[in-house]
């Protein structure tokens, strides 16, 4: 995906978020989501250069940093278990991204974690149904869509 599309997509996401006035967590999600989705759809990779710095960013903007760290551990742990049981079903990049997104989801409440897992699975299923993915269906777009949605609606 051309860099201009990523820049414009991120700008559009920020502009949309500014109209609803969410917390900083949503702005960080928007900044990371567009390039991560583009990379995962195109290359089936979630680059460490984007996923790893997300951890301290989400903890820094979290209203409760301890809860963010705990939620990161829970969400990453669940995804790590899936990765270990079925490595072809979920890549290591998805696990790293899940941990960072868990920190973001912690600001939306504990119910956001299982809800995000279900929503991400639905988005991934839709992606799988839309075309053939010879190198595996990307799960990052589902994780990012679910996390962004739940951070914005804050289910509790």
TrEMBL record:
Endpoints of the signal sequence: none
Name of the protein: Prepilin type IV endopeptidase peptidase domain-containing protein
The keyword Ribonucleoprotein belongs to this UniProt entry's keyword annotation: no
Organism: Amycolatopsis deserti
Pfam families cross-referenced by the UniProt entry: Peptidase_A24
Family: Belongs to the peptidase A24 family.
Ranges for domain Prepilin type IV endopeptidase peptidase: 28-127
Ranges annotated as spanning the membrane: 12-34, 68-86, 98-130
InterPro entries in UniProt: Prepilin_IV_endopep_pep, Prepilin_peptidase/N-MTase
Alphabetized UniProt keyword annotations: Membrane, Transmembrane, Transmembrane helix
């Amino acid at each position: 995906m051309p860099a201009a599309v990523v820049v414009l997509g991120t700008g559009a996401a920020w502009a949309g978020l500014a109209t609803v006035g969410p917390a900083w967590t949503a702005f960080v999600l928007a900044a990371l989501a567009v390039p991560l989705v583009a990379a995962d759809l195109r290359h089936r990779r979630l680059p460490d250069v984007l996923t790893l710095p997300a951890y301290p960013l989400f903890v820094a903007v979290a209203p409760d940093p301890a809860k963010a760290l705990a939620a990161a551990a829970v969400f990453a742990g669940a995804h790590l278990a899936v990765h270990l049981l079925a490595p072809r079903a979920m890549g290591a990049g998805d696990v790293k991204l899940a941990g960072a997104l868990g920190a973001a989801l912690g600001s939306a409440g504990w119910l956001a974690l299982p809800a995000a897992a279900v929503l991400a699975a639905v988005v991934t299923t839709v992606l799988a149904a839309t075309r053939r993915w010879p190198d595996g269906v990307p799960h990052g777009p589902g994780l990012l869509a679910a996390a962004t949605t739940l951070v914005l609606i804050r289910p509790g």
